[in-house]
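**Discrete fold encoding**
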Amino acid sequence: MRQLVGIRSWFLLIVIAAPLLIMSCCLATAQQTQRARADHSKPEIAAMNDWTVGIAGGLLEGAPIRLAAEMARVADDGTNLHVLPIVTRGATENVNSLLYLRGIDAAIINSDALDEYKVQVPDIQRRITYVLNLFPSELHIFVRPEIQSLSDLVGKKVNFNTQGTAAAYSGPLIFSRLGIEVDKAFIPHQVAMEQMRRGELAAVVFITSKPVDAFIRGRWDVGFKFLPVPYESKFEDYYLPSWLDAGDYPNLIRQGERVTTIAVPTVLVAFNWPIKSNRFHRVARFVDRLFSRIDKLQEPGFDPKWKSINLAATVPGLTRFPAAQAWLDRLPRSSQAAQ
């Protein structure tokens, strides 16, 4: 009987205390919310949020996130401009981040990533504008001695690097445009190249800016080579003509020879924000700061690719972000030609 009375007492205590506990928690939450709102209303915090630009970079081990971090170092301007490079699932998914992810104002993409959105976002080329053509990523199709042409790869095992990389997205897309059906593999290139030496793979496909260390430092038997890829009308929408030569790979290409290929532009893009919006103004401030200090990126300590940047370079299939175009229009014609 005493046990029953004790249980009832505890039950009554819980019934009485529970509402009080809930009210206490709600009050604490409300107080925290009020403090957060009060903090947010402070001028310095409001300015921080108003002038923060988020740049979707890419995988931690990739070149795009490094370029985003270097842009942040140069363009960041304290409370006037806060630039945040953001690690993402890869440059090929950054279009999705730019379209739908909160806090993303700009992104580094491979231009042909827009091809995936033609159906689901038919006006994709009006919703995204380019700020800067960063650098071309050349297509490298490296093959075993017995492979003499692209057609020899039909049905053979070809590696396109790991998912999320430029090669894993753009490689199969380019092969599809060429009409070459292969047995696709998506393993790390360093593993794949050893397998290719043993004859387990016919080719590896790199899509990155030349020269690639793996081909410069590697020792390859006679017959291993790059296959030429002609630039045709089927590539005019997103790609650029390019080449590989002895200056890039002296151990694999003879002096005076040139292997034709195509390149995928790696591009800094921004959402096409309404001109009167805060999002437009913050990206415009970022563009002005970045373009005005582009020479800083060409100093020692930054990626050597910055030395070949041309601010006026165009991107196939996209229009330039209005503030970027306005910045270029303010330059004298002689300066534009030099950019």
